[in-house]
Amino acid sequence: MQKNEIAAEKFTFEIPAEGNTAAVQVEMDRNLGFYHNPKMLALIAKEKKYSTMYLNENGKDVMILRCVFGKFQVIASTKEKCIERVSDDERTGMGSLFHFLLLF
């Protein structure tokens, strides 16, 4: 690494606090329009944050989850993984059934 380069893996972006709003760490897989086109971004030494999570089994993506209002929701799934998720004792309920019917 040269003298003026930044180690990108150690830094992420944050929208600084403004008025009554707190600072917000930028999710790296969202575009800036999601944040209503902020005027400024700050570079901070922090672990990167993502809103989308990919579940991978044996080299194959089996489920895609997205964080919406602090809770992960299924965006896409294989039939087998979706049935496994719906039949999980901790997640049973109409919400899981609704997601299953929505996906398939």
The percentage helix is 10-25%
Structural class: alpha+beta
Helix-strand pattern: EEEEEEHH
- Give a count of the beta strands, DSSP E runs of length 2 or more: 6
Global outline: elongated
SS element count, helices: 2
The Rg value, from CA coordinates, equals: 18 Å
Largest sheet: 3 strands, antiparallel
Percentage of residues in strands: 25-35%
Kindly report the average pLDDT value.
82
Write a compact overview of the structure shown:
The protein has helices spanning 79-87, 94-103, and strands spanning 12-15, 24-25, 42-44, 52-57, 60-68, 71-77. By secondary structure, the protein is of the alpha+beta class.
Structure report:
- This protein is of the alpha+beta class and 104 residues long.
- It folds into two domains: 8-44, no CATH class; 52-103, no CATH class.
- 18% of the residues lie in helices and 30% in strands.
- The protein has a three-stranded antiparallel sheet with strand order 2-1-3, with no helix packed on it. The protein has a three-stranded antiparallel sheet with strand order 4-5-6, with helices on one face.
- The longest helix is centred in the C-terminal third of the chain and has 10 residues, at 94-103.
- It is elongated.
- The protein starts with 11 loop residues before the first strand and ends with a helix.
Question: Features of this protein?
Answer:
2 domains, 3-stranded antiparallel beta sheet, 2 helices, alpha+beta, about 100 residues, about 20% helix
Layout: helices, strands, pairs:
Elements: E1 12-15, E2 24-25, E3 42-44, E4 52-57, E5 60-68, E6 71-77, H1 79-87, H2 94-103
Antiparallel strand pairs: 1-2, 1-3, 4-5, 5-6
